[in-house]
Prior knowledge:
Helix content: 55-70%
CATH topology of the domain at 59-191: Helix Hairpins
Radius of gyration: 20 Å
Mean pLDDT: 83
Number of helices: 5
Structural class: mainly alpha
Protein name: Voltage-gated potassium channel
Strand content: under 5%
GO biological process, one term: monoatomic ion transmembrane transport
Number of strands: 0
Distance between the termini: 26 Å
Low-confidence stretches: 1-18
Order of helices and strands: HHHHH
Keywords: Ion channel, Ion transport, Membrane, Transmembrane, Transmembrane helix, Transport
Shape: elongated
Region (Disordered): 1-24
Transmembrane segments: 32-55, 67-89, 101-122, 162-186
Amino acid sequence: MTAQAPVEGMPDDDGGEAGQGPMSGLSTRRRWTLIALGLLRASGIAILLVALYYLVPLDRPSPSSLVVALVLCLLVLVTTMYWEVRAIVRARFPGIRATQALATTVPLFLLVFAATYFMIAFQDPTTFSEPLTRSDALYFTITTFATVGFGDIAPRSEPVRLLVAAQVLLDLVILGLGIQVIFGAVKKARTS
């Protein structure tokens, strides 16, 4: 493939304008191929994580294993975020890599809380306003993350309310700091 002149308004790397970034020397077809492959990989990662959520046995929790599982999952999340930022900084096409990082870290974050809510509700169905299936727990987590909280499912016990409050605070951190770090890594990679 031969490099073509940048097309006005054509993204060079799902963020910058043509002629300014790592994709500027690529043909239009190659750029769109890379973007499509990046989006396909990002979608595949998200689908795989959701599939794992539905397949992993979560119906045998004890109170101590629940706390251990939550702490381990949050450590996995922090480690994943660290490696994703490193991968963005080192990537040839950091904007595409950032999309993949978001497709990994955001679903992982949501699924950690969904799994936790499911295990809590499985252990004691009275902790929420209704018994939770995995889908209910995921729905509750997403509506809490999106701050819409329809109210059809609500925590009833004080510890679960505190956990939901912690999720809301972490949602703000993920949305604010997490996205800032990812896009900062993209900017750093583009300038180095």
